[in-house]
Design brief:
Length: 461
């Protein structure tokens, strides 16, 4: 039976995005919210709204029972978790299903199989999807580890199996390095974590981050081509585009086929993303992980394929089959998304919550701005700083960058400092324009450019 009332278990721009998709499908919406979000745009837009707790996310958006109770009280027959919060919580997905409500996403068992990195790596290997070369589990014997490192090929990463926060990690460039560093890594891991176990992975230097958008209905799976998200700060994506300018047609075909094989191996249902590292020196790609939810950067895929991914997720959760076949899905043009955060890029990206004053939003051909803003809106300080996503689409990558510069210049949010100046500067950079990027590119660039990331008035926005 098709869904009739959808509860949105999230906030901010993604809550607004889900609301719009549901209403276009003729589905009524229920917005749950914390006390800090009572005046949010998502609450204003919903047919019904239910307060579920205080500002702290642990007591509101992460309170699974409060969300479920809101669904029961309002008669919602579906719950969309968006991204973050409860989106990849297998127990929550189980509880929603047990309550007789449709979870807009994969089953709890699928989340367990693909959300855990170790089990996902095993699933990838079983599906013949390339993974980063490394040891098959913990290596206890250092001599055997040295022989394996030579087989893998230097440089290799020596990692503590119980490590975290970068502790217990060494990079060996050759066998002599390995002989010196492996005992150090084991000793540090033993001291820090009580477990000196090590495992090895090949270091993929100057890798690109490539991810494939998947859709499945539990019976069939299709891919919607790839996105590239190599521009990252502290491992957080800031600029995403589709398709990747680095892939040849044959590599793209192989990459997407491997993602489909992996999703099919678990009978995947819903939207998901299979993420890879891509070495453009060798043309090799390696599975990293799968995200079992909609991604922040999904609009660039929507722009180049014309598929409403959020609407498709909702239809599938309501029992419908995929509305598209693989042959229906083609790429048109190039799209770029940048994340507009309430942060000061000239001051180490210091958060800048405040009240939205006069605002001017970009528009015109090929421009989309997904956001949660209105004039007078008080941005709460309790959550992440994402205000909105500026998405541009054009016939080519060069034209998309030109359009991005035009659109970012039009954006005006008085009273706030935002990351918009960062993207104007990146769009002018010759290496960005040439697509000569990798996941370690942005941070050194920021070291030499951050002080200049202000607008014409000398402000950061």
């Amino acid at each position: 039976m098709a869904m009739t009332k959808l509860l949105i278990a999230n906030r901010g721009e993604i809550a607004v995005r889900i609301n719009r998709a549901a209403r276009e499908l003729g589905i009524r919406t229920v917005q749950v919210y914390s006390a800090a979000d009572a005046n949010s745009l998502a609450v204003e837009m919903a047919d019904e709204a239910v307060e579920i707790g205080p500002p702290a996310a642990a007591k509101s958006y992460l309170n699974a029972e409060a969300v479920l109770q809101a669904a029961r009280d309002t008669g919602a027959d579906g719950i969309h978790p968006g991204y973050g919060f409860l989106a990849e919580n297998a127990a929550f997905a189980d509880a929603v299903a047990a309550a007789g409500i449709a979870f807009v996403g994969p089953t709890g068992d699928m989340i367990r199989a693909m959300g855990d990195k170790a089990s996902a790596r095993k699933a990838a290997q079983a599906a013949n999807v390339p993974t980063v070369p490394g040891s098959d589990g913990v290596v206890d014997d250092l001599q055997a580890a040295a022989e394996l490192a030579a087989q893998i090929g230097f440089p290799v990463m020596i990692k503590a199996t119980a490590g975290g926060g970068g502790r217990g990690i060494r990079v060996a460039d050759n066998a002599a390095d390995f002989a010196k560093l492996a005992p150090q890594a084991a000793a540090e891991a033993k001291a820090a974590f009580g477990d000196g176990g090590l495992y090895l992975e090949k270091l993929i230097e100057r890798a690109r981050h490539i991810e494939v958008q998947m859709l499945g209905d539990g019976r069939n799976v299709v891919h919607c081509f790839e996105r590239e998200c190599s521009l990252q700060r502290r491992r957080q994506k800031v600029w995403e585009e589709a398709p990747s300018s680095a892939l040849s047609a044959s590599v793209r075909d192989a990459l997407c086929a491997s993602a489909v094989a992996l999703a099919k191996s678990v009978g995947y249902r819903g939207a998901g993303t299979v993420e890879y590292l891509y070495d453009d020196q060798t043309g090799d790609f390696y599975f990293i992980e799968m995200n079992t939810r909609i991604q922040v950067e999904h609009p660039v895929t929507e722009a180049i394929t014309g598929i409403d991914l959020v609407a498709e997720m909702i239809r599938i959760a309501g029992g419908a089959a995929l509305s598209v076949s693989q042959d229906d899905i083609t790429v048109s043009g190039h799209a770029i998304e940048v994340r507009i955060n309430a942060e000061d890029p000239s001051n180490n990206f210091m958060p800048f919550p405040g009240v939205v004053g006069d605002m001017r939003l970009p528009g015109g051909p090929g421009v989309r701005f997904d956001h949660m803003l209105y004039q007078g809106y008080q941005i709460p300080p309790f959550y992440d700083s994402l205000l909105g996503k500026l998405i541009v689409h054009a016939d080519s990558r060069d034209a998309a960058i030109t359009r991005l510069k035009r659109a970012a210049t039009e954006l005006r949010l008085d009273g706030l400092k935002t990351t918009a100046p960062l993207f104007l500067a990146l769009a002018e950079d010759p290496e960005v324009q040439a697509g000569k990027l990798h996941t370690k590119w942005l941070e050194p660039w920021l070291d030499s450019h951050s002080a200049t990331l202000t607008d014409k008035k000398g402000n950061a926005a």
